[in-house]
Amino acid sequence: MNKNKVDGTLKQIKGSVKEALGKVTGNTSLEVEGVAEKTAGKVQEGVGKTQEKAKDIADKATGKD
């Protein structure tokens, strides 16, 4: 697990909370902000996963299994 994966997951959670609060309170701005934050979190988590895959490939190529 790396920092991007962790931070991305946290952003997704925070975004989900904002989105839900926005829906409950009728605050469209907060809801949209939550959706955007969730999306950014998914992207960041994807970057983290890609970094891990690249490291695994590099480790195998150099014999660092």
Give a written overview of the molecule:
Helix 1 runs antiparallel to helix 2. The chain has 65 residues and is mostly helical. It has 2 helices and no strands. The model has no long low-confidence stretch (mean pLDDT 96). Helices cover 89% and strands 0% of the residues. The protein has one domain (3-62).
Defining key terms:
2 helices, 65 residues, CsbD-like domain-containing protein, YjbJ_sf, CsbD
Q: What is the overall pLDDT average?
A: 96
Q: What is the number of strand segments?
A: 0
Count of distinct structural domains:
1
**In angstroms, what separates the terminal alpha carbons?**
16 Å
**Beta-strand percent range:** under 5%
- Biggest beta sheet attributes: none
Which class best fits the helix and strand makeup?
A: mainly alpha
Oligomer: single chain
The parts where pLDDT drops under 50 for at least 5 residues are none
Shape estimate = rod-shaped
| Radius of gyration, taken over Cα atoms and rounded to an integer in Å | 16 Å
Total number of helices: 2
What string, H for helix and E for strand, traces the elements in order? HH
Helix content: over 70%
Biased composition (Basic and acidic residues): 50-65
Pfam family, one: CsbD
Organism: Caballeronia sordidicola (Burkholderia sordidicola)
Protein name: CsbD-like domain-containing protein
Architecture blueprint of SSEs:
Blueprint (H helix, E strand, L loop, with lengths): L2 H23 L2 H35 L3
Helix pairs in contact: 1-2
